[in-house]
Amino acid sequence: MHKSLKVIATAAIAFSMSATAVMAETPAAATKTTADFTDLVQVDAGLKAKIDALLAKGVFEGVSADTFGINQTMTRAQFAKVVTLILGLQVDSSVTSSSFSDVQADDAANGWAVPYIEAAKKAGLIDGITDTTFAPGDNVTVGQLDTVLLKGLKKNVDVTGSPWYADAVKQATELGIQTAGKDGASVATRTDLVIGAYETSQLAGNTAKPDEPSTTTPSTEQAAIKDASAMGPQTVQVSLDRAVDTAKASFTLQKNAETVPVSVSWSDDKQTATLSLKDDAQLSTGTYTVSLGGFGGASVTYSFSYDASVSTGDTGITMEGLGAIANVIDSDLTEAATGENGYVTRDVAEDPTLSMFAKEVKLKVTNASGDTVAVPGIIQSITSSDSVVARVGLSSDHKGYVLGNEAGTATISIVYKNAQGESKTATLPVTVKSDKVTAVKAEADTKVQKYATVTDGVYTSDFNAYAAMNLKAYDNYGIKYDKEEAQGYNFALGIIFLPEHIVGDPANGPTGTVTVGSNGAVHVEGNVTQFDLTAKLTNGNSVTTEMYIRR
């Protein structure tokens, strides 16, 4: 079983960097973000968000002033600190004596970890390699990492199978603690620990700091609505003054006392809700009221206005409202558009005429009867009053687009030709927000069939998860991404694929394997007849397609 069950519990507590440069004993003077580390420039936005959350809570630090060490391995001492913080264990920083002979307070490499090792041992999460030694500088495997995190969540882990870590990796993958396709015998990296630590902290609801009590669950008291605004014709974003218990919170959206059906998605911090109109309904011009209730007292309300169309001053021609757009350039989001793993390039992501982050300035033309008339692109030019806030572009087919650069407001001006061939000028306002782009809702086909081929007696099947699921993702700015578009912009959307409930034909021997690469490439090998392919979003929402493999 690999050293002994003690090693599983213990060794499962490490985390990247080198043993010396890990998490310093004392926190930095100022909290750093992913923007401070040069090796995180091309990391997915979803992973960056998790790292930022853990940095802010003091769970992680870099290996140096400008290096996070995302791909480095982790030591048992390093993970001892992380596991105590994410599970909210009480840490007594005054402890300087360890119960293990190889962990000394004056050890420059691992002495800082004494309080964390003792706290984790006291909680029953960590044992030594032997009764007297801990091996603080040893690396941790994925299987060991998953086992400890699951134990911290009070999950029962079966270590009697072969290999011993199979159940731990399976459970961790299903819970989202571990990414799909990981080999439990491989050495864990800081990436593995970031994902595991973040997801475990979300499931546990705790992230305490040394000498602080464990944090409580989000507030069950009534919160106030700080802001509510339309992000697009089908999306309303509501910001609260505190994190809330999302199981209790309930929203109602109304216009003229009539309720507008919506679905609700929450941000990771439980302070921002995205309301998506159901049944392809769209907001119309007027005043809307959002009500937040579910906490026992009176509901709180917030009203906002929405202009579904903006007058051009020209009879029969109006412009659709843009809603809000994201500051994708100033926020450095587009730096993650590397052109790798199926992502678009940075040039594409920052081109208003090509980027999915941009919104089109749409003109609506109606005839004398009020019917909408289809017309080709009629925009001749487009400008922005402040290109630092909003960039604009005109495509070859005379369509105008606006892309957010920096948070703020700007006025977009267009020149178009009407039916009489006259050149007219019209303007509309645009608001650029700093709320990070993320997927809030996804849709996919329910069932899909794929075929396996055989080579040298081994059956395999390879396909793209985005295409196979017919995946559609919607971000918090009301933008829809179809299949390849979702893949191209997943550095922002943060979608993770999980193969679950893998089934084989009992008559054909052991069940085979299913792995999903970071680019969405699915590889099925061996005896697999069906499995569930789940696309999981950073807000916890997910959508699943049943995959059937035929020979």
From TrEMBL:
Pfam families: SLH. Residues 34-97, 100-163 form the SLH domain. Keywords: Signal. Residues 1-24 form the signal peptide. The keyword Signal applies. This is SLH domain-containing protein. It comes from Paenibacillus solanacearum.
